[in-house]
Amino acid sequence: MHRTIKENIQTLLAGQLSTWELAKLNYKALEAVRTKEFQINNANERVQFNPARILSSAAKVDATSIRERKCFLCTANRPAIQQSILFGEKYQILVNPYPIFPQHLTIPDVVHLDQRIKGRFNDMLDLAEAIDNFVIFYNGPQCGASAPDHAHFQAGNKGFLPIESEWKAYRKEEIKTTVHASIQVLDSYPRTALIIEATHKQEANRLFECIYKEASRISSMANATHPIEPMMNILTWKEAEKWITVVFLRSKHRPSCFTEQGENNLLISPASVDLGGVWITPQEKDFEKLTAETIHRIIEEVSLPTDDFLQLIERIKGTK
């Protein structure tokens, strides 16, 4: 079954890139994407100039804009040429026509439901197991999702994100363990991030629910107007017999430079891929201007503040 779905995805990709002109052009354009690299605390930060991503980076996600546009993830509103394959009974797998990865998928729910991770993390684990040559990622409704009104995941081929190979060098402390899983803190890594390492799906799911519950409490205490859900981006993949999950804790959707005027403006809207180490700049001027110092400043601005992160760690340690 798992081998078959991976084969079906390769067939889907090949078919869409031969018949869908938009996707064909944008995947071909990846070959000419310009990149540059920096290091922050020995973590690799790759910057990519990718003009096709302007629609996602600049997406209007306020309630009025969402109401006034048709949902582009609903079957009825997608281009007739965009094909899909089913994953179980709940999800469709699509080729993303505006790629970051050489193989980039969007995986929406078949039903138009709001983007929420609660009750869906186990689906991420299932996807990571079924298509174990991909990294599965989730962008929260206030953390980079360009379709916050339609539940979906994305997936990109392994070997693309620096975090995939770097996380082991930064893990320091196990703050909660079960027989087959643990939550670990990444130390000196320039993000507020927790790792779930598990050989058992149910235990991975239970530990994620612990993070979600305690992060919800931190968010509720910090905000008078309670957020939709704890602000987070999530990456999950299967590594040998283990599921590896990185949970990036957030406090802000977009950095201040996003709305700055003139020379101070940078169209940077961090989501899972950026926090995983690949920064997407759809405008050439931003690609030219972005530096290690700017990236570090953006990370600090959108991440959960250190005091809140330390409080979250202590709350997780205290759970039964």
UniProtKB/TrEMBL annotation:
Pfam families per the UniProt record, alphabetical: DUF4922, GDPGP1_C
Enzyme class: transferase
Organism: Bacteroides reticulotermitis
UniProt GO cellular component terms: cytoplasm
Domain GDPGP1-like C-terminal as annotated: residue spans: 177-317
Protein name, per record: GDP-D-glucose phosphorylase 1
Ranges where the DUF4922 domain occurs: 12-157
EC number per UniProt: 2.7.7.78
